[in-house]
Predict the structure.
Amino acid sequence: MANGLDDVVAADTVLSDVDGSGGHLTIRGHSLAGLAGRWRYAQVVHLLFDGFFDDLPSDAELEKAIGKARVDVFDRVKPLLTQLAPLDIYSGMRAGMAVLPDGDGLADALRLIAAPAVLTPALLRLGRGETPVAPDEKADHAGDMLRMLAGIASPTLAKALDSYLVTVCDHGLNASTFATRVVASTQAGLTSAILAGLGALKGPLHGGAPGPVIEMLDAIEASGDATAWLRNQIARDERIMGFGHRIYRVRDPRADALKAVVRQLGSRNETGSRLALAETVEQAALEVLRIAKPQRSIQTNVEFYTALLLEAVGFPKEAFSNVFAAGRVAGWIAHAREQQATGRLIRPQSRYVGPVPDLVA
Ligand code: ACO
């Protein structure tokens, strides 16, 4: 049975490689460890887009173009914001992105890079009864996202968010990237393809996990007994959020990259006590999972420390998946362009297991 397409290779890609048994992530020839905390998000967008757009400028010029795209997107969505604000924050962002032009050029791609970073703070502010803050095209992408959220952006928090966006920029043929490539293979435009990725990312088995991680940490803190709470979760046949992965059988390398960023922030403020709680919960969860599911190596995934990092830089938990999309959109666009270039429609088969029709005499 083709249940979940495990081990099926559905695309050749130059973009990223996930080594699930070694615990390594390669992004276009660079190890994650070499990129996270060292490269800026705009540089990684350049790395992913290289060869997929004829008019790609230098990475410094690309950063400026992303800034201009934030202003362009803000101007386009501004008249819609009050209608989008009553939706949940993810649906509001997705609906705002749906009105963008559906072309295949670099300008279309940069608007899609800019859109989650613009829409998320604007909708959060409107939800709090505050006026949206317009983008500053000269600011760096992550710093401007925080400035649009809070009015100011500390360079330390901006750097932490930038490291997050880099860490999640691409990750093999995950569910949302596959969905993106399927739509791109029909030669629909980039916006259509990215909307498919957004739909797939939302679910709790994929990019919707970090909000529930915060709820779990809060519930465990209130209960006072991590192991008992986690055992009860397993006894009720519930998943422990932030653990397990379809590909990784060892620790997700992105979890360590993000934990290192959170640790740096933790030495400065109350994030430190949150980190101590998370480390206790992580150790308890790994032990509970080891005993409950001895046949399967279930390890910490990217979402566990995503939750801590995004909380520390100031996002509310209901917006965590939006911020994930703000990073992953770079990978989606590059995959969409790579798929379009093959000129090949993705069209697998299903096996019919339904009832046999009555034969008409
Ligand atoms: N908590 C409890 N049990 C788990 C967990 C978990 N987090 N993850 C896997 N299992 C168990 C399943 O219950 C199942 O047990 P069984 O064989 O006794 O029925 C076994 O492990 C295999 O589970 P599958 O769902 O087949 O494994 P899959 O490879 O599809 O799991 C997934 C991947 C969906 C991410 C899963 O680990 C999960 O639900 N994790 C929690 C949600 C989460 O953290 N999602 C974010 C993933 S990272 C990302 O997408 C960016």
Notes: The chain has two domains: 16-204+318-342, 210-313.
